[in-house]
Write a structure and sequence with these properties.
The chain has about 210 residues and is an all-alpha fold. The protein has one domain. The protein is built from 10 helices and no strands. α1 runs parallel beside α8, α3 crosses α7 and α3 packs antiparallel against α8.
């Protein structure tokens, strides 16, 4: 696999990363309420999830998810249920108007970072569409005489690093706006919009049918 194949895959991956999706919405929800560090912890969760999807693709489990209706349905509905749960929780918080403290104690901050990481891992990991992206794209960029496992993880690394660079820029943008976003009214608006969008993503994932 040469640099031309890697570059071409990078372009395709960049289009996927920069398109609107639940990852961007999760960053928009996390940074204004939990801070920049929590935003980067969420990105770390995204990063780890890419390698989970990559490992599943290399081992052939992702093919099972596509070919087996039962396996695909189980993973799909798990992901949809998680997205809907996050969306409902955000909407309830918006209705109640719960204001988070501006100063977070160190122990509380550590728990928040872990929670942000897990949210990023689950949001990206419980999405079979990412594995399907790999299954559809990998054959176009890996030569048959190459080491398929190594080539696959090179592509996963490229995809994950594009994700890190893009969402790191988004985190920095939202952190600059965090002073304004910490206001009670703005927080409720962000949570309400986030909850609605996540419910929409959950519905789209639940009704998704592979081609």
């Amino acid at each position: 696999m040469g640099w031309s194949e890697i570059l071409a895959f990078g372009v395709a991956a960049a289009l996927l990363v920069t398109s609107p999706g639940p990852n961007g919405v999760l960053i928009a929800r996390t940074v204004p309420t939990s801070g920049r560090a929590a935003g980067f912890a969420t990105i770390a969760g995204f990063f780890a999830a890419f390698y989970v999807h990559g490992a599943l693709s290399v081992l052939g489990i992702s093919i099972l998810l596509v070919q087996s209706a039962t396996a695909f349905t189980i993973v799909k509905y798990l992901g949809a249920a998680y997205l809907c749960w996050v969306g409902l929780k955000a909407i309830v918080a918006a209705v109640r108007g719960v204001e988070l403290p501006n100063d977070v104690a160190p122990a509380r901050r550590q728990r928040t970072l872990r929670k942000a990481f897990v949210e990023g891992l689950l949001t990206n990991g419980l999405n079979p569409k990412v594995s399907m992206f790999y299954l559809a794209v990998f054959p176009h960029f890996m030569p048959l005489n190459d080491h398929s496992g190594l080539s696959a993880f090179v592509l996963v690394f490229v995809h994950s690093m594009i994700n890190v660079v893009w969402f790191s820029a988004i985190v920095m943008l939202f952190s600059r706006l965090s002073v304004v976003a910490r206001g009670q009214r703005v927080q409720r608006w962000i949570k309400g919009v986030t909850g609605t969008v996540f419910l929409g993503f959950g519905y789209k994932l639940a009704t998704f049918r592979p081609a």
